[in-house]
Amino acid sequence: MRAKIERHENQTSSAPEASRPRTAAPPATPAEILPGVLAGGDQAVVTERIADQLTDILEQPELVQRLAAMIRASATEPEMAGLLREFFPGQVLDAVEGLLGPGDPGLRINLFVSQLVGVVMGRAVVAIEPLASVPARTIADAVAPALTRYLIGPLTADER
Q1: CB 5 within 8 A of CB 86
Q2: How confident is the model at residue 120 (pLDDT cuts 50, 70, 90)?
Q3: Band of pLDDT at residue 27, cut at 50, 70 and 90
Q4: Please, what is the end-to-end C-alpha distance for the chain in angstroms?
Q5: What are the tens digits of pLDDT across the range 36-88?
Q6: Is the peptide bond before 130 cis (omega within 30 degrees of 0)?
Q7: Which end of the chain is more exposed for a tag (fewer CB within 10 A), N or C?
Q8: What is the pLDDT of residues 1-23, one digit of tens each?
Q9: Which has the higher per-residue pLDDT, 103 or 159?
Q10: Distance CA 74, CA 66 (A)
Q11: Range of the domain at 50
């Protein structure tokens, strides 16, 4: 998945090859990050881990712009939308099997991802204020409890 997206970014980028910043390694994917975040299953610990990971992501402008580019492309290019639909929940579900709360694991992952897409859209694509300019940790602390609930908490009023 990562290689397909990187190929897509390289094909659609208008920046000359020499002017594009290089990173030592591609960023980790949700499938690589989430198992460690969910390990142990304690809601307070998971919430703190999610806040830490999200802060780390949002404090990397290059990474946020790459995510924003993927979101933009998936809205207009069926091939990119298909790649993301394959990845979510597919590979992510395989990585977190047995770590999610009860019920439909696909729904849980898609709720989680939709919240993250919304944060990136609001912050980096549409630049809604103050979302676009508040510190990353402020956003992470605000959304981490909801993200945790999507992954391991109760989803319906009957489960609360």
Answers
A1: no
A2: very high
A3: low
A4: 36
A5: 999 987 899 999 999 999 999 999 999 999 989 988 999 999 998 988 888 77
A6: yes
A7: C
A8: 444 444 444 444 443 333 334 33
A9: 103
A10: 12
A11: 2-10+29-155
What letter would DSSP give residue 99?
Answer: T
Residue 57 forms part of a structural domain: yes
* CATH code: domain of residue 104: 1.10.357
Q: Dmax over Cα atoms in the chain, in whole Å?
A: 56
> What is the tally of structural domains in the chain?
1
Please check whether residue 18 lies inside any domain of the structure. no
**Is 58 inside any structural domain?**
yes
Q: What is the pLDDT of residue 2?
A: 45
Residue 89 lies in a domain: yes
Q: Which residue has the tokens 């806040």?
A: 51
